[in-house]
Structure formats: C-alpha cells, structure tokens
Amino acid sequence: MALPSPLSRLALPLMAAPMTDVSGPELVIAACRSGVIGAFPTHNARSPEELDVWLGKITTSIAEQDDAAPFAANLVVHRSNERLRADVECLVRYGTRLVITSVGSPVPVLEPLHDADCLVFADVASLHHVERAIEAGVDGLVLLTAGAGGQTGWANPLSFVRAVRARFDGPIVLAGGVPDGAAVWAAQVLGADLAYMGTKFIATHESLAGERLRAALVDATLDDVTLSTALSGLPANFLRSWLEEQTAQNAAPVEGFTQHRLLTRRHVWSAGHSVSGVTEITSVAELVRRTRREYEQARQATAATLAGTGR
Ligand SMILES: Cc1cc2nc3c(=O)[nH]c(=O)nc-3n(C[C@H](O)[C@H](O)[C@H](O)COP(=O)(O)O)c2cc1C
C-alpha cells in the first residue's frame, strides 16, 4: 500500500524516532530538512505554552523548504498525562499531519486529530495491541520490537512485521534495532513502509543529549545494553554501566508507569541494540546522507543478487 500523501515524499523511508530528553526543535527541523520525518514527544517541551513556541519554530522552518519532510509529534496517551488535551489542541492549531501515540489506547485522541486531518499511528508491542489499535481506527502502526532504545518491545522484528502485514494493509513502521540504511531496506523487504531510528540520532550535534552520553554511545556496543523495568516501570533498554551506577546510588526501582515518574527521572542513558552502529558524533544531515547511501547500496546488492551477479 502506498503511504498516505503527507508521508509519501521522503528522501528515505525513515523517521527520526521521538525520544524523551533527546528530540527537540533543532533535531526535528534538521531531520525534516534532510528529507526524513523528524519526531518528538510533546512532553519534551516543559509546558503546552513551550510546545506552542516549538511548533511555531518547527512549522516555520519546514515551510521554508519545498522538499522538507513533515514532522510527527508523539503523545503519551496514558491516563496519567494531565497535559494530553492541551497538547492535542496545540498540535491541531499548528496543522500537525502525523501523531504517534504511546503507552496506552489511542482512542481519546483519535476523534479530535482525525477531525483535523491528522494521521494517527499507534505504538504496539504485541498482536493483542495490534488488534485493539486497528479496531480503534488508527491509520498506521509502529511496531516496537526487541532491542529498541527506550521503552522496548519483546517481539522478534522478522516475525512481528510478517504477522502484522498478514492482517493490516495500512502503513507499518518498524521500531527497534535499525542501525543503518541496509536495515531500513530490510524493513521494507519484510513489508514495513518506514523504519524508526532512535539511538543513532542521540549521537547527533542537534540532539538534546549531553556530551558524556553521546561519547558513551560511540564507545558502546550492543553487548553494553541491558533491559530493566527499574526506571519507569516499563521494560526499557539502557547502557549497563549507567544503570549499574544508578543502582549503586540506591535509586529506588519504581512500580508501574506514570507520566510524572517518566518526567522526574530525566536524562537517563537509554540506548538500543543499534548502538553498535554509532561510530561517531555527527550532524543529522550527515547521518541521513550516510543512511541513504547505505540504503542504496543494499538495494543495489539485492538487485545484483537477483540478476545472478551477486556473490
Ligand atoms: C533515550 C530514548 C528516549 C525515548 N523516548 C521515547 C518517547 O518519549 N516516546 C516514544 O514513543 N518512544 C521513545 N523512545 C523509543 C524510540 O521512539 C524508538 O522506538 C527506539 O529508539 C527505536 O529503537 P533504536 O533506538 O534502536 O532505533 C525513546 C528511545 C530512546 C533511546
């Protein structure tokens, strides 16, 4: 199925994934101006008033470039999010074309966003979630799979994409463990329309992450990533050394997710298995250029194999 029109004109089938304390206006603008969807969680703006300022900046900068990709906003739709209604109103005011919902049912935001011509994709981590999201009437699905940075899924990406493609013909985004352009191509071969890339974008100049985290990502491999529910109550992947430091400082593990808990524990060192693809700190434009090159090389390698000339 072709991607809906706001998403069809991309330089690469890629989204810079929304990340708490990482994605701000500069990263989003740089991603969109490089031709890939730039996404951010609305809670990265400290208040609906600040969100208004961010959206003004993002929409103005994107409008200056004809071939810029659209941006996407991520809403935590958990019942504990007291800002949900105010953030939705703000997104509608700025003509947002794509919202991704996470940590809960998309139902409360579907009607106001659809009325405003905004596509709604839901984060899903199981086939049960998939069925519920499709029943609710979402426009697309973001499949959270094993090895993702931040809140992670459990399902194997090969099996999950194939199982969802068998029952849903709308847009599918593969999230988790996408380290380069070859993996973006692999996601499309499986049947996904787009890939999320999160961890790689942490190590860009435009991210809100601190210098120490960016440097630690360059040094880390996937062997340095570990899974824990201790920080937000949800299974998430972290750099092991950082998590051990937190445990040594007796940071109390939390029981169950709330939006407040997510936002009080800030600047966590979260990363996914794709950290093995982080080899240096670079600009967003350069990261997208390289990913595009890797993607084209992978496509050509596939074509050569099909033509019987591949090794
Ligand atoms: C530091 C960090 C923060 C994240 N915060 C959010 C968030 O606020 N909302 C969300 O939907 N996903 C969040 N994620 C998950 C990403 O959107 C995405 O699913 C994940 O990064 C994909 O895996 P990758 O890092 O291997 O590319 C976060 C991921 C990281 C690494």
UniProtKB/TrEMBL annotation:
What transmembrane ranges does the database entry give?
A: none
Signal sequence, renumbered to the chain: none
Name of one Pfam family that matches: NMO
Q: What class of enzyme is it?
A: oxidoreductase
Q: Which GO terms describe its molecular function?
A: oxidoreductase activity
| The protein's Enzyme Commission number | 1.13.12.-
PANTHER family (UniProt xref): BLR1330 PROTEIN, NITRONATE MONOOXYGENASE-RELATED
Q: What is this protein called?
A: NAD(P)H-dependent flavin oxidoreductase
| Native organism | Nonomuraea harbinensis
